[in-house]
């Protein structure tokens, strides 16, 4: 087992549904600790930069529009195997394929408005946390 950190974003649809607390409760119940957090209205440039890896994909423009449609809640989570544990809690990208009891099955409406983001690997998590938080804004709770 490895102590890891991962970057979580509660997307504008889930913030609008007022389920930040319900999603945080799932993180905590799974042993993931919030070590940094902020609510933010992303600018277009910030959203494009965050999803730059997808810039050539057909869904990129819609993804950016969606991510700037309202404030997001951004947090770094820390725990054993945090990256995979968090993705298990999230469920599949398309909520129609997400397992019962996952965040996307319970709170997402479509593949575009799918409630949450989570880093897909330890390396990308490091970059994604540094994209939104300075070193002194991330606390160790190990
Ligand atoms: P995320 O990065 O947001 O945590 O989601 P993910 O890893 O499950 O999915 P990813 O492949 O990284 O795609 C990023 C976001 O783009 C939207 N998407 N739309 N229409 C489509 O085929 C499609 N594919 C991806 C989703 O909103 C996804 O969360
Ligand atoms: Mg992804």
From TrEMBL:
Belongs to the NDK family. It is found in: Cytoplasm. InterPro entries: NDK-like_dom, NDK-like_dom_sf, Nucleoside_diP_kinase, Nucleoside_diP_kinase_AS. GO terms for biological process: CTP biosynthetic process; GTP biosynthetic process; UTP biosynthetic process. Homotetramer. The lineage of its organism: Bacteria, Pseudomonadati, Pseudomonadota, Gammaproteobacteria, Lysobacterales. The active site is at residue 117. Major role in the synthesis of nucleoside triphosphates other than ATP. The ATP gamma phosphate is transferred to the NDP beta phosphate via a ping-pong mechanism, using a phosphorylated active-site intermediate. Its EC number is 2.7.4.6. Its main location: cytoplasm. This is Nucleoside diphosphate kinase. The keyword Secreted does not apply. ATP binds at residues 11, 59, 87, 93, 104, 114. GO terms for molecular function: ATP binding; metal ion binding; nucleoside diphosphate kinase activity. It is an enzyme of class 2 (transferase). Its cofactor is Mg(2+). It holds the Pfam family NDK. Keywords: ATP-binding, Cytoplasm, Kinase, Magnesium, Metal-binding, Nucleotide metabolism, Nucleotide-binding, Phosphoprotein, Transferase. Gene3D superfamilies: Nucleoside diphosphate kinase-like domain (3.30.70.141). It comes from Pseudolysobacter antarcticus. It catalyses: a 2'-deoxyribonucleoside 5'-diphosphate + ATP = a 2'-deoxyribonucleoside 5'-triphosphate + ADP; a ribonucleoside 5'-diphosphate + ATP = a ribonucleoside 5'-triphosphate + ADP.
